[in-house]
Amino acid sequence: xxxxxxxxxxYDSKFQRTFVLKDIDLEISEGEFVTIMGPSGAGKSTLxxxxxxxxxxxxxxxxxxxxxxxxxxxKKKVEFHRNFVGFIFQAxxxxxxxxxxxxxxxxxxxxxxxxxxxxxxxxDMLDRFNMVAKxxxxxxxxxxxxxxxxxxxxxxxxxxKLLLADEPTGNLHSDQGKQIMELLSQLNSEGITIIQVTHxxxxxxxSRRIIRLTDGLISSDNISN
Amino acid sequence: MIRNFLKTSVRFLMRNKTYSLLNFLCLSFxxxxxxxxxxxxxxxxxxxxxxxxxxxxxxxxxxxxxxNGDRFLKEPLSASLVGDLNANVPELEAITRVVPxxxxxxxxxxxxxxxxxxxxxxFLNIFSFPMASGGxxxxxxxxxxxxxxxxxxxxxxxxxxxxxxxxxxxxxEKQEAYKITGVIRNVPSQSLLQFDFIIPLSKFLAxxxxxxxxxxxxxxxWALVSENSDITKINxxxxxxxxxQETTLNQELFLFPLREKILYNYAGGRRVWDGMQYxxxxxxxxFAILLIACFNFINLAVAMxxxxxxxxxxxxxxxxxRSAIIFQYLxxxxxxxxxxxxxxxxxxxxxxxxxxxxxxAGISFTIADFRVVLILAAIMISTGILSGxxxxxxxxxxxxLSVLKGEIVKSHSYSFFRQSLIVFQFVIPVxxxxxxxxxxxxxxxxxxxxxxxxxxxxxxxxxxxNLEAHEGSLKTDLLSIPxxxxxxxxxxxxxxxxxxxxxxxxxxxxxxxxLHFWCINTDYQYNTAINLNITDGRYFSYSFPSDSxxxxxxxxxxxxxEYDEPLGxxxxxxxxxxTIIGVFKDFxxxxxxxxxxxxxxxxxxxxxxNILIRFSSGTYSSLKxxxxxxxxxxEPEMSFAPTLYKDLPSYSNLDMSSDLAGTxxxxxxxxxxxxxxxxxxxxxSSRTKEIGIRKTNGATTLSVIKLLGIxxxxxxxxxxxIALPIAFLLGRIFLMRFYFHSPLPLWVFVAGVCITxxxxxxSVSVQSWRAASRNPVEALRYE
Lengths: 225, 783
Ligand SMILES: Nc1ncnc2c1ncn2[C@@H]1O[C@H](COP(=O)(O)OP(=O)(O)O)[C@@H](O)[C@H]1O
Ligand SMILES: [Mg+2]
Prior knowledge:
heterodimer, B: eight-stranded mixed beta sheet, binds adenosine-5'-diphosphate, binds magnesium ion
């Protein structure tokens, strides 16, 4: 599903070129649950953002479902975001002016889903995450764990094929973190491909494949059973 | 989709109340100005449109060239000219002659003065003044017939059903009955011609045989030009038609289109803006104010959108395209604009009476008029796009990557552009303030111009036939009021105009040459009332019985006559011969816009429409009622109110221009400062932490305010640098229009800059003070 070939990412400053990713080759197939680990500044987020097409590689080729993603134009990228990928962030990034309900609904609106259908889909999500009672609250009125639940609900409501999670538990207590991880592995078992970044070895065990990144290089790529 | 967008927008606005309120107020004021200006312009351009022949109606007028090069427009022409025009210009399909006049109607013991016209019987065929009852033509062909308006019918007979009834006109002691043959609907206010009755012109001509003489100034000529005719060609044909007639010397005829009558006038022989002037002034000012309001919106919105930049980034991740974000933001702007529009419609309704009375605008406001709806829609859409597009572009440029990385969004985005907006916003009020003060200076210069009399002790009141008939006793009665020194009947209020004659002859005059002179018709008291500067000889005096046929002339006239010793020499004016007994100088009879013209004072009683009352002690307010009491004794229907000369509307209409500039600069300054203070409050709050740190390090509140103020000072100075030359240029152009003008007052430039700077800085400081005076610990904790 995802195929990265000779991906480089670097930033040019006045006198030098700083490499963030160096010659990354990576294949991820549909249905995988992959964890990316590595020290801070290793380039994990950058890699995730390139996969999520929020960022572009400086060099190299990226195929998503056999489409050359590095050649996509702005419009195609918007389509990609609408239909194939969901994001979860460490800082949740909910919209403060929207209620729980509206936050979850947002991607559907941009996707052009009809109002009736939207209602059903959002209601399903609220049900699933036990948040029906909280649907009219604003993010500021929720705990961190609940906010992240909303974040996940928003990421998956559009039924993406790929879920990208950049340190989704980074701002949470370990209990809440565990809950989120269980949710992720459940989603994975339902067929969504998941790529997460985490520092937590324990949470990494929820996935079967762990990629370690050091200084922009893949230092190990372990698939366990 | 839109509903969802709007919900978040409304919440955002509710959470940032100061910001929303500021934007709302600025936009409302801007829109209010724009709507009022649009209504004003709409009103002016709606004039006379109801005439079926609107585009083919022209007034035949003359331009008179004076020997000193001055050129004037002359509307009334000889009644006999109609024959010449008909014979020479077949393109004029129909010609109707009109003589406006006021008449006194009586019904029982009640009497009314009404304004109406004498007109040829084809008048109602050429112009489209619809009949309420009665047929259409021949209504005004018989001598003693009259067509009246519904308004007048109600006044006279308390019914509009009055065909066949008789209207009685009282002229002095003479009464005459007119048969009513038609009733017309009231003349719309948007009509150049205003009248309440029509009497056949033949009636007028029967009573005024002189009106038919060549050179007489009796009738206004309106012509219906046949379709597709070439106006330039017609103008060429008629130009010299009367030019070489002895009595009309140097008069060139031309066609003045009805559709331009309200917009243009002729001054000095050149076409100048009349109503157009206000169309342009109103339009420019309103546009400038609306721009300021939009710029405020942009500035505040971009500043504020730094908060929403994150939101836009998240939305992009959720699948929003750029255009969706732009669309959403524009929708939000339109909602704010629409709410402001509703509010400004209320404001407009409240303000219209004020505008009408202040600027004599005559505007009305109904949503029922589709043009008004169109204007409102156009104003709203352009305002929405103008103010919303840039913040929308800014928002949509949100890079989700930097948002997600948590990078601090730079408020420098578009900063150059935004600062140029501030500069522009302050250029306008500075220019307006200076320009207003220049107008005021010139206005005062003209009011206080030394015309040799104390103008604050002179009262002017209109003359009427009844008063004229009792000149002697009226004067005695008025003079018996303590404090009143002189009462004079005249056709010339100083610097407000007088009549003109080319029937002046003198010894040694080239007989073929006919020159125009200003003529002052007055009495023995004129000089006491206004104190002429007589350089040679004396003023009229009862002790010289021969004075009744004598003249005073000014030095310019003496130069024209080439009389070195004018005293005792003979001239003849309008066929009456007399001796020159005095020479005066430096007296402005017409206005201060042109040079001194040759002027003759005589004791002729013709067209003395004004009474000048000079007082030496007491105040105007104490004398006013006493004068009124005397006046009413002779003229029970008090149709004129006494006015202090100083309070007369200035001849050049400067009052309105300066009021307009004043109001505009007030609003512009208010808006610009609202915007600036909003920006200041935003930037102060975004610098809360910096301020806190500075204060814990020992900075005083004052020094922090200074720090915050310096940033704005730079931009204000740039706007002053731009504004000053513009104001200077405008001021010069304006003053050059006046032959006698005050020097360009330099202090107004200093004052304009100081006023603007002080007000702007004050508005910034209030916001900065709020930020700077906060407890630093609290400020740091807040971060
Ligand atoms: N715009 C940029 N310019 C220069 N360097 C950058 C930029 N963005 C990120 N970096 C660098 O790229 C490296 C990788 O960042 P990131 O992918 O966020 O690391 P990680 O998520 O593994 O902690 C960091 O060292 C960071 O300093
Ligand atoms: Mg990271």
